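Hey, resending since the last one bounced:
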Amino acid sequence: MRNRLAVGRHNQRRLLHISRAWRQADHVIQIDNGTFFRDSPSSAQAASQRPLMTDLSFTLSTDRAKTQDLWAILSPSSVARTAFLQILAGQHFCDPPSARRYPSLTERGIPAHKAIKYVGFDADRGSNVGGNNVRGAYLSARYETRKEETDFSVLDYLTGHTELNALEVEQPDGQERELQRIVEQLNLKDLLHMPVSNLSNGQTRRARIGKALMARPEVLLLDGPFMGLDPRTAEKMATVLFTIAKTRKPQLVLSLRPEDEVPKWITRLAATGEDLNTVSTQDLARSRGRKSGATQEHLTLSKDGHPHDSPALPPGEVVVEMRGVKVSYGDKTVLGDWSQDVNGEQREGLYWSLHRGQRCGIFGANGSGKTTMLSLITSDHPQTYRLPIKLFGRSRLPEAGEPGISVFDLQRRMGHSSPEVHAFFPKQLTVRRALESAWADAPLSKPKLSADADRCVNAILRCFSSQRLLLFLKAIVAKPDLVILDEALSGIDERVRDKALLFLSHGERVTKVENGLAQLSVLEQLGKVCVEGLSQEQALLVISHSKEDVPGCLREFICLPEPGRGTLPTVGVLPGPLELHPRAWKEQIWR
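The structure tokens again:
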């Protein structure tokens, strides 16, 4: 009798163990009260190393589990969002090591690094596809018609044929079918033979996701998938991701900023602040997703110190003038495929001008020609030389009785910050040297600074410590006639972004805006301000897909139509800061 009872208890424990193991195998990622460090705490700097996250618990079920949760990570901090996803991918030191497990993968003998893929779209990662330098060897390369040996197509990129003299290997049937499925799923068919250097931001994003899917991961971690996308493209991207998420092959985990709209198909949210304390709740996802800027309309002053009703500054002399600009490659027109009314006559191409004192935004869907238009202004586009464009009253080529404007003169009179500039900017320069290069003819040449210029550099270094703002600060420090900010603050943490926008408008004169009041700095009160912010003699051009990144001083705007439709661009004037008139984002700009 005792033997039968003992056998019964043994079988009961065995069944309990099998049941627990089976439940654990339903989890592809399982973290139980883990503390995570960037490096092993046994290293020399262990005493000073703070944990990235403490007491973290998180589970991600397999596709065979009963609960099919679709997760997103929400945080105002890009560091926190990225760290969370990297922890899920197996990076960073876990204490104790047993707190992080991959039961489903372990059961099948699959290494976590092969089954879990991380794809980051954060601003720090540049615009290169897959981290490879396939955008061209220099800034103007993407606009040239000559095809280089390194100009790999999207098909080459997806199949991994991105080496020089790569062997022509026929794809196995299984991989060929997988490629066709991914191409159809991500709507890449029309892009397969296009050089990756010619892709727009949204197209590049789809190509990178496709590349990750070709590895057939179990879990795909997407860091900032909607960052840098216009509202319409973001909606399309959410639809594309949903087609992947509903199949759960692979499972998706997204990271989102507070200003991002949470996709309707997301069911679970892990919200973390800058201190990386984590809370998970579905209700929080919905409340953040429904967050509306309408609550800002009662405020009298924007975060960067501009009144609710503040008209545009009176325009000064012309800085940029385009009279019938039309950019085409063969039979494909990428900018100016419309007719405008000019003094009562219908004329083809883009007619547009920018004056001193104007703060203008260039908006439009990904691929609408914003970057092309900007490249004509900065003279990075070869067609600048033949098109009817005047920069600071002069064309690039000499005209009768008038010399052309040189590239060195343009560089001296323009301050430019963009992801492309960031990708090609020399990385070996110190922060001070990079700021000083705002007065140089070329980034690597050392300029002779005046005493005022040296004081401006010192003022910038006192105010900011974030290296991610370096090119933004370089664009404004020399007080150029034209400041160009192309996605300059995309991906920057909210607190740092607000400080940068305040500095753009007021320099050292204002330290913060709180409860509708601007707090003047001690330097302003003592009359010792070096950097005063934008002046009426300067013009500002802004490209942004997020209304939170738009400076409060912006008043004029042009929104380019999607190419091939022949419709006119939308041109208008805002009544005040976009932050305090949030309805204007959709009702005026994106109508």
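The first helix runs from residue 2 to 25.

Sorry for the duplicate.
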